[in-house]
Amino acid sequence: MIHEPSVRPSESLRDVKYEIRGRLARRAHELERLGYEIISLNIGNPGAFGFRTPETMRLAIIENLAAGEGSAIRKVFSRRREAWVMQQQARGVPHVTAGRSSSATA
């Protein structure tokens, strides 16, 4: 049995919580009911709140876009084919596969 070492958060992140449900979310809803304006930054589009991706990260994305582009497209089409196969199998269509032959198009 291979034992993977556990990942421990840095000391500075020890008290950071990510919670979209639970005590923090319930408290936020409670405050909203009391009339407070709560801005939820834990999910959604941070750009809507004026936050921008750091310039160094934007440049790294631009520089590496071509390297990841083909791989991402293949993954999307692969998932799409798998979903289509599952849908057809659920409908009772026999002999359906996710292969790329002419008999299985997605």
Could you characterize what this model shows?
Helix content is 44%, strand content 0%. With 106 residues, it is an all-alpha fold. It is built from two helices and no strands. The C terminus is likely disordered.
Task: Please provide a brief summary of the model.
With 106 residues, the chain is mainly α. The chain has helices at 23-33, 55-90.
Identify low-pLDDT runs.
101-106
Taking the alpha carbons of the first and last residues, their distance comes to 40 Å
Question: Which structural class fits the helix and strand makeup?
Answer: mainly alpha
How would you characterize the largest beta sheet? none
Cα-atom radius of gyration: 23 Å
SSE ordering: HH
Mean pLDDT: 77
As a percent range, the share of helical residues equals 40-55%
Choose one word for the global shape: extended
Quote the beta fraction: under 5%
Q: How many helix segments?
A: 2
Beta-strand segment tally: 0
Question: What key attributes describe this structure?
Answer:
106 residues; extended; single chain
Break the fold down into its secondary structure elements and pairings.
Layout: H1 23-33, H2 55-90
